[in-house]
Amino acid sequence: MQQLPKINKESLNLLKDGKNLLAFSAGVDSSALFHALLANKIKFKVAHVNYHTRKESEDETEHTLKLCKEWGIECFVHRCKLDESNFENNARVERYDFFKKILKEQKLENLLTAHHLNDRFEWLLMRLTRGSGAVSLAGFKEIEKWGEWKIIRPFFEISKEKLHLFLEANGLKYFEDSSNFESKYFRNYIRYNFSNPLMKDFEDGIAKSLKYLMEDGALLQGVEPKKIEDLWIFDRSKAPSPMVNIDKIMKSFGLVLSKSQRDEIFEKDGVVGGKIAIGWHERYVAIAPFIKTKMSKEFKEICRTHKVPPLIRPYLFKKEVDPSTLTHMF
User: Fold this and answer.
1) Which residues contact 236 (CB under 8 A, 6 or more apart)?
2) Which fold has domain 9-209?
């Protein structure tokens, strides 16, 4: 194949050894990834979501099924109809819930998405307009833990223009999502007024800046948080900016903190959205689902001795986690 997009070695090794699920929309990005995976002899299954929002939606689904049949690839299709209110967020939740379902049922390890350099730059510009720190501006990583799975983005450093050229050079079919041209979506406004023009003229510089920003963000995050069941905990002394880790953990629970929520829990115990409890210890920060339950006197005394944050104690009791474990983790 001509102009085959190059997949980074680390991602390529994980893909060759792993059990993979490709998130496939039939657009430029996922179509390029589909054929790049084939060219690299990587085994994968396909997950496709049809939201029935456009006249071409069914054509994309039929193409997906035909393409997978042609290459002998197992394909899973999810059809749904969502409310127009807050569609982008609802659609994201719907498809990722579907991906989790297939990953679990098929005993797969990796979710592959076709996010590329342009997506990363769009994210940076969007977050910049809304007020964000370095880690949030840096955005998603090439390889990330996602619950019991990994999300891998093989085109992390490749521009959309290169993906488009690859498909055109090889006569490979793809669809253009007509909703990408609707100005009512903020991402599209950023894309066509700022991101695309800048990427066209300054791709190399933008790629370098995103790389440096990602490296700086990693330093701010410090050591990766540890996990026991749904309890997350990290060492305060090794987290230069604790709120960076807190934001990341909250997102794993499906919550994005507002400024007022961040202010409420900064170095203070609290409950976010009535669902997630956060507790500050002199050595660590602990985050767990918020529950209410009666605890034994013996358990309460152990928690008091080890200064376990009060809001975290009920979760430890329910899951039968030894409170002393938390202080011994560091």
Assistant:
1) 242, 280, 281, 282, 283, 284, 285
2) Rossmann fold (3.40.50)
